[in-house]
């Protein structure tokens, strides 16, 4: 699962026993060599889908980590791109990455649950971050995204179809979440990282409540499951309320 440049088991344990912020500060130098980073094919497919509907003026990468989503935004935004994350370590790595020519890029350290922006963005993207939010935090998170988008702006993120119950992947994720719950029951501060709390049906409902009109786009590059449903979808939520 990890390349030779990735973290060792001991480093992962130390990370998991820290807070989310401190854990990602520690992981940051090696994050891009872990499976926690969104795979390039998903990033590329998202950029391709956005190019068909863009261009956009300004973009925000929510929970940007080392900036992979910023690279997507730089392909579809004309005036400027911002990455926001609460890990100083991840932002430090993001600032050091070499990027191709494009719109100006800025970096802001902030909590996604308290974004320090007005309605100045036309596009917000996020990749692989929602497992760090408990279900009760999602409505406030979506309200924050709504507040920083201009009317008609879009909030976009990919969603991979969940593994089938009984499969090896399903059992692995179920076991991971169980271990995290035990860890958080016996140690503080908590490390919030769950794989099975962010469900598509709940997500659509909460986005609608927050004032978005929601569409699901199939990312056809990844094919379909046996039942005909897409393996990967793009959630496209348009701000419809002033």
Structural features, described:
- This is SAM-dependent methyltransferase.
- Keywords: Methyltransferase, Transferase.
- GO terms for molecular function: methyltransferase activity.
- Residues 60-153 form the Methyltransferase domain.
- It contains 8 helices and 7 strands; from the N terminus they run H-H-H-E-H-E-H-E-E-H-E-H-H-E-E.
- With 242 residues, it is an alpha/beta fold.
- It folds into 2 domains: 1-37, no CATH class; 38-162 and 199-239, Vaccinia Virus protein VP39 (Rossmann fold), CATH 3.40.50.
- Helix 4 links the parallel strand 1 (56-62) and strand 2 (77-85).
- Helix 1 packs antiparallel against helix 2 (20-27), helix 3 packs parallel to helix 4 (68-76) and helix 6 packs across helix 8.
Rg is 18 Å
Main structural class: alpha/beta
Give the strand content: 15-25%
Instruction: Enumerate the strands of the largest sheet in spatial order, edge to edge or round the barrel.
Output: 3-2-1-4-5-7-6
Tally of separate helices: 8
Number of domains: 2
Can you identify the CATH class of the largest domain? Alpha Beta
Order of helices and strands: HHHEHEHEEHEHHEE
Give the beta-strand count. Answer: 7
Shape descriptor reads: globular
| CATH 4th-level superfamily of the largest domain | Vaccinia Virus protein VP39
Q: In CATH terms, what is the architecture of the largest domain? A: 3-Layer(aba) Sandwich
What is the average of the pLDDT values? 88
Residue stretches low in confidence (pLDDT < 50, at least 5 long) are none
How are the elements arranged and paired?
Elements (H helix, E strand, L loop, with lengths): L8 H8 L3 H8 L12 H12 L4 E7 L5 H9 E9 L2 H9 L8 E5 L11 E5 L12 H11 E12 L7 H19 L13 H10 L2 E7 L13 E8 L3
Parallel strand pairs: 1-2, 1-4, 2-3, 4-5
Antiparallel strand pairs: 5-7, 6-7
């Amino acid at each position: 699962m990890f390349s030779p440049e990735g973290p060792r088991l001991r480093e992962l344990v130390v990370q998991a026993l820290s807070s989310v912020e401190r854990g990602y500060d520690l992981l940051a130098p090696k994050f891009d060599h872990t499976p926690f980073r969104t795979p390039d094919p998903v990033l590329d497919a998202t950029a391709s889908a956005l190019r068909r509907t863009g261009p956009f003026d300004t973009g925000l990468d929510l929970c940007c980590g080392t900036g992979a989503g910023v690279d997507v935004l730089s392909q579809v935004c004309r005036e400027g791109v911002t990455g926001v994350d609460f890990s100083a370590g991840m932002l430090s790595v993001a600032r050091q990455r070499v990027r191709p020519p494009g719109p100006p890029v800025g970096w802001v350290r902030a909590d996604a649950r308290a974004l320090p922006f007005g309605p100045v963005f036309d596009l917000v993207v996020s990749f692989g971050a929602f497992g760090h939010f408990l279900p009760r935090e999602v409505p406030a998170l979506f309200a924050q995204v709504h507040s920083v988008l201009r009317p008609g702006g879009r909030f976009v993120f990919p969603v991979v179809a969940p593994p089938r119950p009984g499969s090896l992947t399903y059992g692995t994720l179920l076991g991971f979440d169980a271990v995290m719950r035990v860890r958080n029951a016996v140690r503080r501060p908590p490390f919030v990282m769950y794989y099975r709390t962010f469900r598509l049906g709940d997500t659509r409902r909460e986005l609608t409540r927050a004032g978005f009109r929601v569409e699901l786009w199939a990312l056809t590059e990844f094919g379909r499951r046996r039942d005909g449903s897409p393996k990967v979808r793009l959630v496209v939520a348009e701000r419809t309320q002033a």
